[in-house]
Structure formats: C-alpha cells, structure tokens
Amino acid sequence: xxxxxxxNAFVVCFVILWRCAYCVPIPLRCLIVGGEGGVLPVSAxxxxxxxxxxxxxYRQAAMSFVVESxxxxxxxxxxxxxxxxxxxxxxxxxxxxxxxxxxxxxVNRISGDPEAFWSHYGIIISASAQAVVVAHEIGHACxxxxxxxxxxxxxxxxxxxGKAKKRKDAR
Length: 171
Prior knowledge:
single chain, 171 residues, three-stranded antiparallel beta sheet, 4 helices
C-alpha cells in the first residue's frame, strides 16, 4: 500500500510542478481610490504584499497573479462606498479600462462592513481586508463557490445545492 501512495504522491507533485512551470500569471489591474487631500486607503506596496500572500495561498492550486497596473485616483464620493449602491459600483468599475485580467479596486471602507465583494466586473476591497479575504474574493472571480462545514471538524460539506455530502476520504 505504501508504494501505491508514494507513486501517486509523486504523480500529483509532478503534475503540480509541471503546471506551475507553464502557468501564466493572471494579470490584476488595481485602482486605489483616495480621499480628500490625497489620503490613500492602501499603498501600492500594500497591494503588492497582499498579492504576494494571495500567490502563496494559490500556489497549491498552481495559480498565480501579477499586478499589471496600479492606478491612484481621488474620485470624490468613492473613498467610502455602499455595497448596494450600483451607481457607485459602476463608477468604480468604469475607472479601469476593460481588458485581460481582473479588476481590483481598493477603497477606504465599504458600508455595512463587508471587507470585500465581487461581481463579474471585478472586486472591490476595503482597506481593512486581510490578504486571505482578497484570496477568497479572487476565488469567486475564478469561478469557485463557497464551501461550508456543517460544524467544526465535520466530515460533511454543504454542496452548492445546499445538500450535505459526505467526503469520500472520511473514515
């Protein structure tokens, strides 16, 4: 049995390494929305650090991301936004041209206190969002759904349909 596990582990590692070697990073086009007096919610260095952590998280899935551009704007009325305000969201998304990659927009705060949210236009992220939150929203933008455990330590996972399914590797 050990030989089987080692052989399969080798194959899995080889496939991951091969994918990483030929993986093309997904470009990120970032917008940092400043407030009055040029106050910025995050710096370009902070954005870079968050993306480095996102890459560490996604390395196991052979995915990587690169900041293609990082633009700063002082758009009045958009330093703090309301997630439900479609006019604000449309204004933010339109500030970056369409093209390859994923739009990431950093604001000071999102009312209602979500740290970030995404739509098919891009991701809007509050200054307080940790890199794991950014990675979570990037996962949604890449088509991944939320997965929830019924309770801590459970072998059951609630599927997208809402029905609990037992993990095959559970004992």
